[in-house]
Each structure stands twice: as C-alpha cells, then as structure tokens.
Specification:
Distance between the termini: 47 Å
Largest sheet: 15 strands, mixed
Helix content: 25-40%
Shape: elongated
Radius of gyration: 25 Å
Length: 494
C-alpha cells in the first residue's frame, strides 16, 4: 500500500462540465481529498483513534476554508457522540441437568455482559429456534431465561432475518441472555470474531440483554446430548411455523467480567447561513468513519483505508460545500459528517436524537456514501424513491444537468443501510441520489470484493468520473432546494 501525502491540497481549477454551471468538480479535486482521507496516515478512520482526530480536523479545516460556519450545539465544529465498547474479560460457566453437572469438552463459547460484572445462578436454558415464529413474534417463554438461538433464519419474515432484529425481539420479551449458535464451518468464526472485536455502540440507544454471546454447534450438541436431548430433533422441531421453543432442562451458573470502554467520538457539523429566516433548511450528510486497522497481525496490509467507503463521499461533500458557499441562498444549508456509520448508523442516530436544528425544519436530507463506483454518463438512481414527494423535483434537476434517470426502485434495497434512514424514521425527507446505485451489478461487484477490506484504497484506476458528475448534481440540487422560488415547501419539513 502506498503512503499518500499528508497535506492539505488546494483544489485545481474546475473544468466546464454541465449546463447549470460554467465550472464543475473535477476528478482531480476529489482525488486530492481521497488521497489524504484514505492514506495510511489516517489508519482507516476508526472512531476513537488518532485516525479520527486527523479526519475530523481535516474536514473542519476544509469547511472553514470554504467559509462555512461551525454549527455544533456548542458553537464549535464538533458535536460529541458518546460511544461504548465492550470486550471479553474473564468468565466461568457451569451447566447442570436434574442436579447433575454436565461435562462439556468444547470451549467454543464467548459471553459478554451488559455491565462490567455479571453473576447469576440457576439460569434456565430454552431453545428458541430462530427466535421468532413465521409471523415474526416471540412465542417462546424466554422471560428470565437464557435463549439459545440459531444464527441462520429461514422461516421468518424479511424484517426478522437479521440476528439483530431477532435478538432485540427476544430482549423485549424479557430474555436474561441471548446466545447464538454458529456452525463451525461457517458463521461460528464470524460470530466469535464479531464479539471479540469490541464492537462500537451508542449506549443511549442500546437494546442489550444482561448477557449476550455465542456458542458453536459442537458446544451446543455436547450440551444438549449430555442433558439427554437430541439436537437434530430440536432443529427439526424449530422448522415449525409457530415454534414456541423447548425448555432444555438445563440450568447455568454464570460469572462474566466484561471490559468496558466509554469515549466520545464526533460528528462534524457546518452551516451556510440562509438569508430568509424560517424558510427551512437543506442538509447534506455523509459518514467519515471506516474500520481502522482491521486485518490480524502479520497480514501484509492491515489497514482498511475506506477510499470508496466513504472517503469518496466526504470528498464530494467538501467540494459541494465549497461551491455552495460562494453565494448566498434563501435557506440554511447544513453539512453533517457522521461518525460510526459502520457500527450501525450511530452518528446519524445521535444527530436525529439531539439535532442542532428542529428536524421538521429540514426540507430534505441528501446522504452521500460510497460514491466512487460508477463511470461518467451513468444514470441517476434515487435511494428512497417513493418515500417522499420529491422524486420529480430531484429528477428535474438531474435532467437539467444532462443526466438520465434510473426509474426503478431497485436501489431501495439499500434504504436501511445508510445514514439517511436514521432521519427518515423521524419523518425527515431523506434520499440518496447519484450514479453508484443505478447499476446494482456494478455495486455488488464492489461489495463482493474490496468492500470493508484492505483493498478499498485509492489507486490509479479508482473510478472518480461518476463521483465528479454526482458532485455537480448535488451542487445543482443544493441551489435548487435552497432557493424558495424554485422549491416552495408548503412548510418546513413537508
């Protein structure tokens, strides 16, 4: 991996690009930002690291140079986002059935407590299959018990297929512990790695059981067999549409110590003040974070640099901010660079919970993420198509810049995987607009290769042509929606 220059670059002269603008954002403009943000010096931009400090400083300095105003709640550029990490400490466990201690040879178990110390005796174990029934409900009596849950889930609704959704449903039903079962040939190593990676969470929004963890198939087979149960029969029973779980006749004595680390990360917030008060505001947003040093020791390249995801999005946002700040607009225009998107849209949720302006004043939020995918001339897709009344407005602006429109709703498959979702759930009109998600085969190629790995770094062949066109499109969208004559919102938030 090449170490990029760590210097603040001055944008090169823009080239003629589109009908709405005499000048446009160039690939060289974007490359200058990505070269810095995705360099080894920024160590993959993980929240809570020196890489974060360099990243948020770079963004704030770029926005200050463009003459934006700091817009965090305290008047600075940085809005604190309190985060928490939990790591495995020491633990001990013992299982009994009918008063008889069960001998388990496998050590494939990882347990993490909600608090630093967890001690419970005689916790009943219940096998819950996928955790929910075919109608998405928890039928098993899990209150005060340790729910043993299959990681894979077939016979459940789409909104319950993710382990997180099923875990939260079991927690809401009163589960004392939620323990997933992973196949050692597939998802057990993934489960174990995730639990041991000290995942980042937003404590204010956490939905956790007092104890959570994972065991391998080998572990659970030994456990239920020792108690006189048949694992294959249990799994077969769990395929029933209305499966209500089965008590395993096993009780657990558990003592778990968890290493807990709390820290503040930062959203970066800037503003171009509008000249018409009470006319609403436009919001551009994109996440600055990535996965940091992600590969194990000894790997030839350990840094997940996140050039496409999402140094490219921040590069576009920087150029959009610089262009829009050159003139006055009717409405306020906010710029939000979020933290911890990779950990579950956490910075976006923190902003949505404690916004620096009333959410009903935001006439539109435009998220910019993973934008260096498509070449020049790509169609414009809308993630969130059909969820707001703004599709026609967006398409009209796109056509004026010479862009063709991808009219399908296929890109909505990514609706809940991006920061705008946190605002959409609060009623804010939130869209992602551009070429990267117009060709889903091209996007899937990236997701199946360089995504979230050390190879997502800036190279000579990184595609920035479509990103430059998307930057020009966002500038045009900014000028349109910030102008009360061009876009007449019935009232702020509509």
């Amino acid at each position: 991996m090449r170490l990029a220059r760590y210097a603040f670059l001055i944008s090169t002269a823009a080239l003629a690009c589109g009908p709405l603008s005499a000048k446009g954002v160039t690939e060289a403009d974007l490359r200058g930002h990505v070269e810095i943000l995705a360099s080894d010096a920024f160590e993959g931009r993980k929240p809570g690291t020196e890489g974060e400090a360099k990243t948020v400083k770079y963004i704030a300095e770029a926005w200050a140079k463009a003459e934006l105003k700091p817009a965090a709640a305290d008047g600075s550029w940085f809005d604190p986002v309190p985060l928490i990490q939990r790591g495995r400490g020491s633990s001990s466990h013992a299982f009994t059935a009918k008063g008889r201690k069960l001998r388990i040879v496998s050590d494939d178990i990882v347990l993490i407590g909600q608090q630093a110390a967890y001690v419970r005796s005689n916790v009943p174990l219940i096998f819950t299959g996928a955790g929910v029934t075919a109608n998405g409900k928890v039928a098993a009596d899990v209150k005060g018990k340790a729910a043993i849950v299959l990681f894979g889930a077939d016979n459940v609704p789409d909104n319950m297929k993710s382990p997180r959704a099923r875990r939260e449903a079991l927690i809401a039903a009163g589960a004392e512990a939620v323990i997933f079962v992973g196949d050692s040939q597939g998802n057990w190593p993934t489960l174990r790695r995730q639990l041991l990676s000290r995942p980042i969470a937003l404590e204010a929004r956490e939905k956790r059981a007092p104890l959570e963890g994972a065991i391998s198939t080998e572990f659970v087979v030994e456990l239920v067999t020792a108690a006189g149960q048949d694992w294959d029969k249990l799994r077969t029973n769990a395929k029933q549409a209305d499966y209500a779980g089965e008590a395993l006749g096993i009780e657990a004595d558990l003592e778990v110590k968890t290493d807990i680390y709390r820290f503040n990360s930062s959203n970066v917030i800037g503003k171009i003040p509008g000249r018409k008060k009470n006319s609403g505001a436009l919001l551009f947003m994109g996440h600055w974070d990535h996965l940091g040093i992600c590969a194990p020791e000894g790997a030839p390249d350990r840094i997940c640099n996140g050039a496409v995801d999402n140094a490219s999005g921040i590069a576009v946002m920087n150029e959009v901010a610089e262009a829009l700040a050159k003139k006055k607009h009717d409405r306020d225009i906010y710029f939000l660079a979020t933290t911890a998107e990779e950990s579950g849209l956490l910075g976006a949720y923190a902003f949505a919970d404690k916004p620096v302006l009333p959410l009903d004043q935001i006439i539109l939020s435009l998220n910019i993420d993973t934008i260096a995918i498509a070449p020049r001339g790509s169609k414009v897709a809308i993630i969130g198509r059909g969820t707001t009344p703004l599709d026609a407005e967006v398409e009209s602006v796109a056509k004026k810049t010479g862009r063709a429109i991808e009219g399908s709703t296929d890109a909505n498959a990514f609706l809940q995987r991006q920061d705008g979702w946190a605002l959409a759930q609060k009623g804010v009109p939130a869209l992602m607009v551009g070429g990267s998600f117009a060709d889903l085969n091209l996007m899937q190629k990236f997701l199946g290769s360089d995504y979230h790995g050390p190879n997502d770094e800036l190279t000579d062949i990184t595609e920035l042509g479509g990103a430059a066109e998307d930057a020009d499109l966002h500038i045009a969208l900014g000028r349109h929606f910030a102008d009360t004559r061009k876009y007449k919102a019935k009232k702020a938030g509509e």
